[in-house]
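During the reporting period the student researcher (J.K.) took over the structure-prediction task from the postdoctoral fellow and processed the backlog of single-chain submissions. One of the processed entries is reproduced below for the supervisory committee.
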Amino acid sequence: MEGNLLQLVDVGAFFGLIIAVCVWQLVSTSRAKKQRIARELARGPSEDGEVAAPFVQRVRAAETAAARGAAGARAAAPGPGPKGGIEKPHAAGLLDSAAFAQVVVASGRRMVFTSGQVSIDDEGGLIGGDDLAAQTTQAMKNLGLALAAAGAGFADVVKITTYVVNYRPEQRSVIGKARAPFFSGLKPPASTLVGVATLAAPDWLIEIEAVAIVD
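J.K. obtained the following structure tokens:
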């Protein structure tokens, strides 16, 4: 009886040892696999140009796809023509002006609204001093940068609003001449000009905002 018990104990110990070895091998294999993947991610492709771990290949493929997507977004920079459906029909009975459109009909999936742009650089420094023409030109340049950030351009603008400090009628031609080059070859958008007492900073003479439509 005692011999049988000893045999059972020995058999149990033997199987217990086998189970322990199997568990150790599984843990070691998992740890080794994780370490190998980490090394592959850090090292990149092997000398023969292949990556050892399929997981690493998927990671690299995802990174490549993301990079191509970013390149595609850059390639979609605004071109010379409008991206949305924009019509500027003649409004019978209203002045047909070369400086602006009386009405604009637009269709598109995306609307772009800019903040009012003034004559400052990217650090907030005034450009143009007390020269209204110079400030108008810089405000329009800044407007172009704002539109470009949304994938739009001046061809996509459907409405522009201009605010002028202490506006006088003779200033209209000054503003128009400074603004005209930005719509060269295009029929200008709908436009509103508003005279105001002051803007947010005392040195700012003009502020211009726009609405654009792009697909």
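The committee noted the following: Residues 167 and 195 are 5 Å apart (CA to CA).
J.K. will present the remaining backlog at the next meeting.
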